[in-house]
Write a structure and sequence with these properties.
Elements: H1 5-18, E1 35-38, E2 41-45, H2 58-71, H3 79-83, H4 86-99, E3 103-107, H5 110-121, E4 127-131, H6 136-143, E5 148-152, H7 157-166, E6 173-178, H8 190-199, E7 203-207, H9 222-225, E8 234-239, E9 249-253, H10 257-264, H11 266-269, H12 276-291, H13 294-313, E10 324-330, H14 332-344, E11 347-348, E12 350-352, E13 362-367, H15 374-390
Parallel strand pairs: 2-11, 4-5, 4-6, 6-7, 7-8
Antiparallel strand pairs: 1-2, 3-9, 8-9, 10-13, 12-13
């Protein structure tokens, strides 16, 4: 007897509830800023990826409005038919210049960018070697390919060397890593990874979702941070939805990469182009980060202060090197309870457990931004101190 839709939905949801994995997103009642209103409560926001505070910046909103009025509400088609407006190509040239790469192409999201680029590049007989903690979009993108897939230990160039030495291929060899890892906040040892990749004739593919706007001069990203931005054997992909405060994904690198993706990347070929307001906001964001370096300076000043104070309170931040600052609670229920208590104290910070992170490493992931004031951070730290003592986590 066939399974009905109702029974399938109810069984799956019941399973999620029984495992404590059912998600019920909180709802923001105001713009996503350092202080906002969530489910009717005014809070300090440590949960967003809005690193530079651009999501509600007046200059970015003004450029979005300008493009909306001049170019309309939507692009009207996919890029390859009638949806490529002049502003789309202008922004891609601006992005390539910013990234110091031979070309750049914008896609609908960071997630679909990984699907499109990996699906385009990798063919049967190719070899791809991926960091064990790479983002889910990389994992799903690789599942769509017929290349031989291997895993190396997290951020471990020696293990990457071992895997490449044990696995040969006549086709393309691709080493895939996040630039900044989204759950732990650590930076990939990119210089050493590229050195190993080149030893075996492999191309390095860097997902810089959490590095763009955060690392490198003017926020050019992890690849720039390590000095490889002009290398033609390095591919950069990422989102335009975190530090840039808007939405979208991009691929940047070899001069011919853009043309191949235009012809082969399915998410590009079959998705309507970004609305003009999005393009205007993104263009303004790239202008703003280069014109006003104080955004990045404040981001890192706040990051250093917040990490130091959490350490003083006795919290384990898992060696994070970036504004992504996890606070370890161990078991999922402890992290979720800490998140609930922080929210009651006026701090919005989300608990994460298995399967998002390994069992026994449940944590709250905090992201400070350039927009947070010292008062905001001190308010959050005082709440953390109280919650940590109540749950016997903080030692300070």
């Amino acid at each position: 007897m066939a399974t009905s839709l109702s029974s399938r939905l109810r069984a799956e949801l019941a399973g999620l509830r029984d495992q404590g994995l059912s998600i019920h997103p909180r709802v923001l009642d105001a713009a996503n800023r350092a202080r906002t209103r969530v489910d009717g409560r005014d809070v300090v926001n440590l949960a967003s990826n809005n690193y530079l505070g651009f999501a509600d910046h007046p200059e970015i909103k003004a450029r979005a409005e300008q493009y909306l009025r001049e170019w309309g509400a939507g692009a009207g088609a996919v890029r390859t038919i009638a949806g490529t407006l002049r502003i789309h190509e202008d922004f891609e040239e601006q992005l390539a210049a910013f990234k110091h790469t031979g070309s750049a192409l914008v896609l609908g999201s960071g997630f679909t960018t990984n699907q499109g680029v990996l699906g385009t590049l990798l063919q049967p007989g190719d070899l791809v070697v991926s960091d064990e903690l790479n983002h889910a979009s990389i994992i799903d993108g690789l599942r769509l390919t017929k290349a031989t897939k291997k895993i190396y230990k997290h951020a471990d160039p020696e293990d990457l060397d071992r895997v490449l030495a044990e696995n040969d291929a006549d086709g393309l060899k691709l080493v895939v890593t996040d630039g900044v890892f989204s759950m732990d906040g650590d930076i990939a040892p990119l210089g050493r990874l590229i050195e190993v990749a080149r030893k075996y004739g492999a191309v390095t593919y860097v997902d810089d979702a959490h590095g763009s706007g955060v690392l490198g001069a003017d926020g050019r990203g992890t690849v720039h941070h390590f000095g490889f931005e002009t290398a033609e054997d390095v591919i950069q992909v990422g989102t335009l939805s975190k530090a840039w405060g808007v939405v979208g994904g991009y691929a940047a690198g070899h001069p011919d990469l853009r043309e191949l993706l235009i012809n082969r990347a399915r998410p590009y070929l079959f998705s309507t182009a970004h609305p003009p307001a999005v393009v205007g906001a993104l263009s303004a964001a790239l202008d703003l980060v280069q014109r006003e370096p104080e955004f990045m300076a404040r981001l890192w000043e706040n990051t250093r202060y917040f990490k130091a104070e959490l350490a003083r309170l006795g919290f384990d931040t898992l060696g994070s090197q970036t504004p992504i600052t996890p606070v370890l609670f161990g078991e999922a229920e402890a992290a979720f309870e800490a998140s609930r208590r922080l929210f009651a104290e006026g701090v919005f910070a989300v608990g994460l457990g298995f399967p998002t992170v390994p069992r026994g490493q449940a944590r709250i992931r905090n992201i400070v931004t350039a927009e947070h004031t010292r008062d905001d951070l001190d308010f959050a730290l005082a709440a953390y101190a109280r919650v940590g003592r109540a749950l016997s986590v903080a030692q300070g």
